[in-house]
Specification:
The protein is of the alpha+beta class. It has one helix and four strands; from the N terminus they run αββββ. The radius of gyration is 23 Å and the shape is elongated.
């Protein structure tokens, strides 16, 4: 009886772990895919998010050449600050080649 229980446990525990790992990977993949679809041709762009605590998040949104800092909670969204957009170069800077 005890051997049967241990065999079932040895079979189902790794299966459960694999299902949890797969669901986390699938969730992460779908979230990145949905964020990529939102940044289309509109004037609103999500720049960065930061999770502070469960249910409390900071977000930076670019809207008409302004970056807006938002505080997002379960109760709603609050505008915390605003600044001019600082364009960051998207390509890496390569070292200059010596002149001949």
């Amino acid at each position: 009886m005890m051997v049967e229980y241990l065999l079932r446990l040895a079979l189902l525990l790794p299966l459960l772990g694999l299902m949890i790992w797969g669901s986390l990977k699938l969730t992460r993949y779908l979230q990145t895919r949905l964020v990529g679809l939102q940044g289309g041709s509109g004037s609103l762009e999500l720049v960065e998010t930061n999770l502070l605590a469960p249910g409390l998040k900071l977000a930076v949104v670019r809207f008409h050449d302004r970056e807006i800092l938002l505080g997002c909670s379960r109760n709603g969204i609050v505008r915390l600050g605003e600044a001019e957009t600082h364009h960051r170069p998207k390509t890496a800077i390569l070292p200059s080649q010596p002149e001949l």
